[in-house]
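#structure-requests
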Amino acid sequence: MLKIAHIIPMMNYGGVEVAIQKSYKDLNKNFEYKVFTIKKTGFPYINQKSFVFLIYDIFISKWTPDLIITSLWWSHPLGLFFSLFGYRWYAFFHSSKSTHIFDYISTYISSKLSDRCLTDSSETEKYIKKISKNEIDVIPFVFKNKKSIVPIDKRKYDFIFVGRLIKEKRIDLLLNLAKKISNELSGLKFVFIFSGKKKSIKILKNNQAKFTIIYNIKNEKVIDYLRNSKFYIHLADREGMSMSTIESIQSGCIPVIRPVGEIKNYVNAKTSIIINDDSENSIENAVKKILKIIFNEKKLKEMQRLGLMNVSQLPSYIDSLESKIKCRLNI
């Protein structure tokens, strides 16, 4: 059985980590697939171990992986290290832009020196092609939804946000949008689900709206909240595939979205409220569009239907990764 080692910084509740968690059991049906972390094992726990155990496995216990995959910028140097000893290394990239100079340097070097590049979307692929002539396979962050769609009028929350509590996710725009909508309509319910370290954020405090703030919950719980929310807000500056956006549409949410990264290839004005930039005028126009449809159940159902149709045509992560690995390694 083919042995695969997948190295990540740490297990967390972000898109990369959730994809690994969701695919772990299925990948182990056809491969001997192990996950190793650099910083700490983290949660949720899926038998991941520190990368120190990978070093031990390779050089002492003689567990020799046929393929090493690295995800996120500070895992790639380890891929380069193991490649010096003759191990096949695929660098996996998950964003259409680099966050900072260290991210760019790691991406630049690993995209050139790895045996092959993997990307989570065609937009990330375009970015890597600008800096490397290495061969690339696209592995989209899409998982099939197995749960039913809750009717729009039965949903508990009006708006939901899911993502890391970092500046690139533009929490400032999220709060600005929430404030403007709350000033126009009373009794709205918002739920914000953050991953990562807890930080204080200035939530609008008035009697007009109710805010529920949640940190670091399992993906299954996130899906339950998505299934019970009408609109999904995502205003990040950069993305790759944006797994949470895919999951929101699969759960029947109407995205209020900036079309960055791959997002622009599976949402449009018929399925979503599009915010093209971060200007005050764009936010105000989005609020007007939301107010126009928020109580129009027929319109919301049609947007929901078209959104579901769009994402249902996307290939799955597990099928794509399995088939590409088998094809490239001649299995």
